[in-house]
Amino acid sequence: MKLIITGVLARLLATTLLATTLLATTLLATTAAKAEDMVFTSWGGTTQEAQTKSWAEPFTAASGIKVMQDGPTDYGKLKAMVDSGSVNWDVVDVEMDFAIKAAKDGLLEPIDFAAVPKADLDPRFTTDHAVGSFYYSFVLAWNKGAVSGEPAGWADMFDLKKFPGKRTFYKWSAPGVIEIALLADGVPADKLYPLDLDRAFKKLDTIKSDIVWWGGGAESQQLIASGEATFGQLWNGRVFALEKDGADVGVSWNQNLTAADVLVVPKGAKNKDTAMKFLAAASSPAGQAKFAEASGYAPINTKAKAEMPADAVKSLPDAHVDGQINLDMNYWAANRDTIAARWYAWQAK
Amino acid sequence: MSVETRRNFGTVRLPAGFNGLLPALVLIVLFFVIPVLALLLRSVTEPEPGLQNYAALLGDGTYARVFFNTFLVASVVTIVTVLVAFPVAWMLAIMPSALASIVFGVIILSMWTNLLTRTYAWMVLLQRTGVINRTLIAAGVIDQPLPLINNLTGVTIGMVYIMLPFMILPLVGTLRAIDPMTLRAAALCGASPFQAFRRILLPLSLPGIAAGGLMVFVMSLGYFVTPALLGGTSNMMLAEMIAQMIQSLLNWGLGSAAAFILLVVTMALYALQLRLVGARRMSGGI
Description:
- Chain B: Belongs to the binding-protein-dependent transport system permease family. CysTW subfamily.
- Chain B: Keywords: Cell membrane, Membrane, Transmembrane, Transmembrane helix, Transport.
- The complex is a heterodimer.
- Chain A has helices at residues 2-31, 45-63, 75-84, 96-104, 177-184, 197-205, 217-226, 236-244, 272-282, 285-295, 310-314, 329-348, and strands at residues 38-41, 67-70, 91-95, 131-143, 167-170, 211-214, 231-235, 249-264, 325-326.
- By secondary structure, chain A is an alpha/beta fold.
- In chain A, strands 1, 2, 3, 4, 5, 6, 7, 8 and 9 form a 9-stranded mixed β-sheet that branches.
- Chains A and B meet through helix 1, helix 3 and helix 12 of A and helix 2, helix 4 and helix 12 of B.
């Protein structure tokens, strides 16, 4: 019996080794083909389309370097690539609080500011390991046909008497909803941090059964446009797109909350130098102006607005700085895991 | 390896048919056994060596709730699937074969349609402003939309629909193998239709119910797409929690531990059923 098993194992091992070698050779052969080309990864949908048109296509035209698109961004995949040393992504669009945390965990390459001009970049969204991609605001949007009256601010989302019906919020643990609950509960904007989680969850409990969560931008648009949710917390670019499509939506910029996406280069990226050149192009005034015009998200290059048509500037979060609140990315980066654990525990209750 | 083993290496006798088995075995070892071992390893080494991930999962009320949800949803889905599938399977078993193959075709056809598409279709039907609620409101049956989505009802409807073929197919096989004469004999001996069903048909079809039920239950335990889209956050199932741990929290140790627990539970269930029903009967033979 023992003999049989040993023999079987030996055979199995030999075949497995052979198969692994074959597989590895094939994989190597396919990845080593083009050294200069690079891969850009973002969240898909209208946002990545705008990034392709505004950044990748002009970059390819100017440099001859092909930019392959991949997506959606997946932090688990990014970590897996860095851990295994086989990094297929060169530039990735990520949320800024993740970028700060990931830099601390050693998942990112430092930005080479000799290749990426820093002078005109908004310092709020630039770090040693990240260059701003764009910044956005969470705004209050509603379906005009489904809601009675005009919601005026975040507090109205917690008023079930005045505004009955479903309301929609961002599903994942991220800067935004906690702050909205605290603001609605009367916490002054300058006293938000450190976040009082107990108070926030208590406030959220009052409307929990009337919340529909959205997990992605397209879902938030569908919920509001169909009236499935009468109003909700949306990314301003998604509301902008709804308005462009002629949907009957209202929007309040009162206490709009800014957060940012940034571009990072994963540690061990195969085309690091190319990636830096791409970052320079994406964060340039022209790249930022084009993207902002297409998406409704704000540029992170301070010179970009001068290159945009006046009416496009009007729909940007920059036009609504009155009462605007900057979500604290550093606070979130430091407390990401603790808040997430409580967030998901509360959701599952 | 002892000297004796090495001397005999060339003359080892493999079980008959082993060479035919080899490609599948290699595939399974390479893409299943090795990854599962890596998973196990990760669950006891990240972030530091020890059993803290398992302690966290088993000692925390939230995770306990998610485990409970997972088994609740899988059980409800399995029971409802059996109840819906049995009459269909019985009908298929006794139908003229030409007609039966058409009905089979319809059932199989649904399996060839993309899962995501089918789930989104259910969203359109079930939501508050969806087809079902609008029709009922227009007909004056209800005046407030029924909560059919983002809860257990939505998950059950969506998943039963997806699982039905996996229950019907094994069940038809078992039902067809039952000799119709046994039912006639029962009737001749004075059994009422219900008695004949309960004492003859049901026991004889048990292997099919068990095989299909196990498949549905096990598939439901690890389901991701449908619960994520049709369920609410308070019905979160294990697969969604694991995705969260891996993708958004980057806590791979905890995610691996949760995945490993799911695997162990599934295998334990399988072992239990093998004992109860017997391997031969499970595979369709009686």
